[in-house]
Amino acid sequence: MRSNPLPDRPVRRIDRDPEIEIGRDAWWAQIPAVAAVLEHGLNLPAGVTFLVGENGSGKSTLVEALAAAHGLNPEGGSRAARHSSRVTEAPLGSVLKVTRTPGRRANAYFLRAETMHGLYTYLENLPGSPDGDLHERSHGEGFLELLDRKFHGYGFYLMDEPEAPLSFTATLGLLARLDRLRADGAQVVVATHSPLLTALPDATILELGPHGIRRTSWNELAVVDHWRRFLGDPGSYLRMLH
Predict the structure, then answer these.
(1) Residue 87 within any structural domain of the chain
(2) Which DSSP symbol is given to 77?
(3) Which of 62, 84, 75 is nearest to 189 (CA)?
(4) I want to staple 53 with a disulfide (CB 3.0 to 4.6 A). Which of 208, 219, 235, 236 is the partner?
(5) Is the dihedral angle over the CA atoms 31, 42, 97, 146 positive or is it negative?
């Protein structure tokens, strides 16, 4: 893995828009990590940032909101993408304002594992689309192919649980792609459960939970400790389930 000095980033920070009223009793506003962003904002560093936490900790809610606040389709795609199935994302993106680095045009794209089928269908129906082959590939192959086609150069890129369709070997391939993107000046935010992806050297890891959001290291992640223990003695975990 390369460890080059990180370039500047397209997006510097997100904050609550003070001109927009928020119903603090909304379910999404009560998630500790979301409440922390609404109260204090969030700096987004250069390179690759991982959002890690248990189900319900707000990882997907936050990455979907980042996409929406940046003008991307919250079900995946670019700023120009116009597709929707059933709206499930929180309206958090509509109450956030984005602080960008001025003076340089940046690419942007969002890949969301649970809505990839709808994105593939939308892309293949565009006039003259070069992406009509994605449905012919496996879920994981299509995901990596689309990433190679849409994520390139200086830009702001988002992924929600990209490891979901990937084998161990394919996840290693994604890890290498993240490293190349970072070297090319990309700023990437990834919501994930994967201890493999979060092992990327020099990445920023933000752990979401009852505490809100805190920066941590790979060795301190609970999911890493759980996998180590499980692989060392899977029987002990299985016995606890009975």
Answers:
(1) yes
(2) B
(3) 62
(4) 208
(5) negative
With beta carbons less than 8 A apart as the criterion, state whether 4 and 183 touch. Answer: yes
CATH number for the domain spanning 221: value is: 3.40.50
Round to whole Å and give the CA distance between 207 and 212. 8
Structure tokens at 150: 């849409």
Q: Is the dihedral of CA 145, 55, 218, 67 positive or negative?
A: positive
**Residue type present at position 108:** A
| pLDDT value at residue 80 | 67
Question: What are the 10-residue block averages of pLDDT along the chain, 242 residues in total?
Answer: 60 94 84 95 96 94 93 82 67 92 89 80 79 80 86 93 91 94 95 96 96 96 91 84 74
d(CA 121, CA 143): 13
Contact between 79 and 71 under an 8 Å Cβ cutoff? The reply is yes
Token look-up 């988002």 returns 158
Q: How many CB atoms lie within 10 A of CB 29?
A: 18
